[in-house]
């Protein structure tokens, strides 16, 4: 009777040792850890669109989802930093114009203004808005054109008068907010909201909101948009001094559809679709005579721009659906582009800044880093 019990005991002991060997970890090999799936996250709202600088006109290529990679030049070398202070701070501090001969210097989005003249804040057919910004300055040719447009629109197009938005700062240059262009005194924003038949107070000019013309991203609101809006833009485009007019793509579409096919449509070539510009239109005039350092843009051509180009722009401004966020932590956004340095502007802009009793002192380091200004011949792309 003892032998069967001994056999059973040995069998139980062997089974126990076998199970223990199977469960014991192999030396040097970590035990597997069950994978845990992180909870899925979705964006409650779409990511805000990146700010669009007023420097592009042609419809850009499709946007990539890949984050922008900063250019560093040679491997291992950090990007060059601006050598001087931000130009926007220096030009934003100038309260009076440069007492020099009138000249537009540089490019619309990279330059300055000498001898600027103010648009009077009140006129027989206009009122200037946002007076606290001190941006009712421009080259004398631009000031004359704005006055002429307002007067003729009141006489012939059913307007009580025009509300005029930003032109340029007293000495032009980059602004602390709102625009990439408007730097050389040749750009003007005209509101599409009619001027009231009374003089607005300074407070009203700061607080009053302009009215959007849009019903959707691809159409204007017929209860707001009218024939007199189209007449005003057409009148501005008819002036030979005007090179471009920027409007929202939906406004461009309304102008295309409202102009008969057998009518003169050449003026439409000057009207260019652009992000924003749904409550105002942006006038840009050519480089004036005597402004030898003013950099011109390529001609717009003779096509009315109502075909493929407009279709692309309407697709670009179409609202995009929310994109689900990928699981896991999000990478930090790429660093933003540093503000334009005083050293990046034409050399003459230092004289513009410092001239006169109210001139702005330019740091010595920035003066030493100044480089000769490149002429307009080097510009081959169309920019806003």
Could you give a quick summary of the protein structure above?
This protein is an alpha+beta fold and 384 residues long.
Characteristic terms for this protein:
globular, single chain, alpha+beta, disordered N terminus, three-stranded mixed sheet, four-stranded mixed sheet, 384 residues, disordered C terminus
Molecular structure report:
This protein has 9 helices and 13 strands. By secondary structure, the chain is of the alpha+beta class. A 4-stranded mixed beta sheet has the order 8-13-11-12. A 3-stranded mixed beta sheet has the order 4-5-7, covered by helices on one side. The longest helix is centred in the first third of the chain and has 22 residues. The protein is globular and about 60 Å long. It starts with a helix and ends in a 16-residue tail after the last helix.
Read across the widest sheet, the strand sequence of neighbours is 8-13-11-12
Structure class: alpha+beta
Uncertain segments are 1-79, 375-383
Q: What oligomeric arrangement do these chains adopt?
A: single chain
What is the beta-strand fraction? Answer: 5-15%
How much helicity do the residues have?
25-40%
Global geometry: globular
Tally of alpha and pi helices = 9
- Biggest pleated sheet: 4 strands, mixed
Give the overall pLDDT as a whole number.
81
What is the β-strand count? 13
Radius of gyration (CA) equals 31 Å
Termini, distance in Å? 105 Å
What is the succession of H and E elements? Answer: HHEEEEEEHEEHEEHEHEEHHH
